[in-house]
Fold this sequence. Notes:
The structure is a homotetramer. In chain A, helix 1 (8-26) packs across helix 2, helix 4 packs across helix 9 and helix 6 packs across helix 7. Chain A is built from nine helices and no strands. The radius of gyration of chain A is 19 Å and the shape is elongated. By secondary structure, chain A is an all-alpha fold. Chain A binds chain B through residues 26-30, 110, 113-114, 150-151, 153-155, 157-159, 161-162, 164-166, 168-169, 175-176, 180-181, 183-185, 187-188, 191-192, 194, and chain B through 26-30, 110, 113-114, 150-151, 153-155, 157-159, 161-162, 164-166, 168-169, 175-176, 180-181, 183-185, 187-188, 191-192, 194. Chain A binds a DNA duplex through residues 1-8, 11, 32-34, 42-49, 53-54.
Amino acid sequence: MRVAGSNRDETWKRVRAAGVDLLYRHGFEAMNTRQLAEAAGLKPGSLYYYFASKEEFLHRLLVDLLDEIIVDLEQNLDGLQEPVDRLDAYVRTLVRWHVVRREETFIASIEVRSLTHDRQEAYMRLRDRFDVILADILRDGAADGVFDLTHPRITRNAILSSLTAISSWYDPAGPFGLDVLTADFLELARRMVGLRSAG
Amino acid sequence: MRVAGSNRDETWKRVRAAGVDLLYRHGFEAMNTRQLAEAAGLKPGSLYYYFASKEEFLHRLLVDLLDEIIVDLEQNLDGLQEPVDRLDAYVRTLVRWHVVRREETFIASIEVRSLTHDRQEAYMRLRDRFDVILADILRDGAADGVFDLTHPRITRNAILSSLTAISSWYDPAGPFGLDVLTADFLELARRMVGLRSAG
Amino acid sequence: MRVAGSNRDETWKRVRAAGVDLLYRHGFEAMNTRQLAEAAGLKPGSLYYYFASKEEFLHRLLVDLLDEIIVDLEQNLDGLQEPVDRLDAYVRTLVRWHVVRREETFIASIEVRSLTHDRQEAYMRLRDRFDVILADILRDGAADGVFDLTHPRITRNAILSSLTAISSWYDPAGPFGLDVLTADFLELARRMVGLRSAG
Amino acid sequence: MRVAGSNRDETWKRVRAAGVDLLYRHGFEAMNTRQLAEAAGLKPGSLYYYFASKEEFLHRLLVDLLDEIIVDLEQNLDGLQEPVDRLDAYVRTLVRWHVVRREETFIASIEVRSLTHDRQEAYMRLRDRFDVILADILRDGAADGVFDLTHPRITRNAILSSLTAISSWYDPAGPFGLDVLTADFLELARRMVGLRSAG
DNA sequence: CATGAATGAGGTTTCATTCAT
DNA sequence: CATGAATGAAACCTCATTCAT
C-alpha cells in the first residue's frame, strides 16, 4: 500500500510544516494527530514512522529550533568584544528569529510545558544559555562602566521577555518590517541598560 | 445527601483555589476535572453545581481577574494628569498584580487560547484596554515632549510584555521583593520611553 | 447518563465473570476490552471505573485466585502431621480447585506471561509457596522413610504439573466426577512418591 | 536490491531461529514482526517472502516440530512389543524432546491457542496421536496384567502432562542433565502405571 | 448540594500487511 | 530477494459530562 513516488524527506517536511502550523494555531494539547496526519497527507498511524510519540515530535521541533538559534547567535557574537556590540548582535539575532520564524518561536515560548518532565528540564538547561550569554554581556558592560544597570537579573529578564514576546504580537502584515523592529529594539535595549543612544 | 456544613461560597472558594493551583502547575488541557474535584474535596460530578463546563470555569477565572485588575488600574490612575505619573502608576500596578497574584496572571497570559473562540474574542477586547491605556499615556507623553519614543506601538508592546512576563520568572523565594522589582521596573519603563531617570 | 438501579458490586461481578469467560476462551491478548464491556453490559470506557488497565484486571483475577487457594490449602493442611496425610490433603485440595474453578486455574496457568515484569515476579513469588509446601512434604516423607523419591525436585515438578494440567483437559461433561478424579490423583501421587497404596 | 550473498535457505533459518527465540520469550501475541525482522536481519516487509502471515509462521513451526517428534517417536517404538518397553521408549523420547528442543516444545504447549480455528483443529488432531499411542500402550499393559491402572484416561493425562511440563520448568543450567531426568521420568511413569521398578 | 455510576466521543498508538521501487 | 513508505483496522485508555439517587 505504498503511495507511488513518496519519499521520506519530502514527507517529513510536510509533517513538520503541518505540525508547526497546527501547534501555532491550536496548541499542543488542542491539536490532534488526526489533523496532523491529514494536513500532511497521511493516515494517523503513518505518523509514527516519523516520530515515536506526539510529545517527541514537539520536543524535536523545539530542540531543533533552539539549536539553530544558538548556533546562529554564537556565530553572530563571534569576534565581538565590546559589550555594546555584543548586546546589539544579541538583540538583532533574537528579533530576527522571532520575526522570521515567528510561528516556531511562539510555539517554543508557550509549549515547553507540554514536554515530559525530563525533556522539559533538558530543554530548559539548553535554553538557559540565552540567559547566560545575555547575563555575561550585561555583567561585562557594567564592569566596564558603559552600562548602568539596576539589578542585572531583572534587566536581563525584562530585555529577554520583551524580545521573546515579539512572536506573540508581531503581525507580518502590519506596518513594521524587520528593519524597523530591529532598529527599535536595538534602541530599547540600549536604553534599558542605561546607555545613551549613539545617534 | 447534603454534606453537613457544606456551603456554597466556601466550597466555591476551594474549587477556585484548587483550579488556580492546577491550572498554574499543569495548564488547562493537562489538568482534569477529577484532579480538580479531588483537590476541592468533591466528586467530579459535584463540580457542575459550580460551573457549566470546564472551559466556562477558566473563563470566569480569567474575566474576574481581568476585571479586578482593570478596576484597580483605573483607580490608581484616577486623578493623575502627568504622563510620567500615569506611567509610574501603570507600571506599579502591573508589577504588583504579577507578583502578588502571580499564578493567576500567569494562567491568564497562557491559557487564553483554551477559551472558546467567542469567549476568547470577548476576553481580548477587554484586555485591549490595557493596551489602550498605555498607548494613551505614551501618546500624551510624546505630545508633551517628555517622552522620546521610537514607534509607540513597539515601545508599548515591549513594556507590556516585559511586565506580563514577570509572573513567568518571578520567584517569591528569590532575592527580590515587590519593592525592588517595582523600583527597577519603574526605572526600566522610564528609560524605555526615553525619559532620563529622576534620580 | 447513569443507568437506573446500577450498583458497583453487581457490575463488578458481571465484569469479573465476563472476564473469566473471555480469558478462558480467547486468552488475554486475543480478548479485547470491547468484548469485555459488551459481555458485562457496559461501554468500553466504563470498565476503567473498575480497573486501571486491562493488565491490572488480569493481575487482580490471578492474585485473588491464588490467595484463595493458598488460604484453603493451608487450612486443609492445618493440624496434619504425617507426610502421607499432608500429601493427600495437598492433592485433594489442588484437584478440587482445578476442577471446580477450572476456568480460572486454567487462565492462571497460562496467562502469567501477560503480566508486567514486576507483577509477574510478584505473582511467581506468591506461587512458589505451592512448590515450597509440596517440597517440605516430600522432604519430610523421605526423611521419615515413608517416601521413596528419586530426585525430590523432579518428583515435585511432575506431581505439581500433572495436577495443574487438570484444568486444561478436564471436561465437566465427561465421565469423571470430582470424586473419581480425586481418588485417582491421590493414588497417582502416592505411587509417584514410592508409597505402596493403602488398598 | 538483492543483498549480496543472501540465500533463501540461510535466511529462512535465521527467521525461524529468531522466531523461536521471540515466541519463547514473549509469546505469539506479544511478539511482533518488527522484532522478528530485526532479529533476522531483515526489514519487516521482507518477511513475507518467507511466510504468508504471522500466524502461518507459527503454524509451520508447530506442525514441523510435531511431525519431527512423531516420526522420531514412531521410530523409537518400532519393533518394541512389550508394553513396558514401549512405555519406556515413549517416556525417553518425550523427555528428550522437551529438554533438547525445550523452547519449541514450550511454544507448542502454549501457543496452539493463537492458531486460526481451522489450523488449531488440524493441529490438535495431529497431536492426538500422542494420546492414542500412549493410550494403546496403557491399554495393552493393563490387558496383559503388567500395569495396574486406575482410570486409563486419567493416568494417561497425568503422565503426558508431567512430561509436557518439563519444557516449562527445566533449566539447562540447573543440576539435572538429560540422563538424570530421563531416568527419573522412567521411574515415575512406571510407578504411575502401577509397575514395580525393575531396579 | 452531593455522590455514584455510567456514557460517548475522541485521543494516541500499535501492528500485520501491502506494494512500488 | 529486499527495502522503504505507507495503510487501515483496531487496540487501550481518558475525560468532560450526565443524571438517578
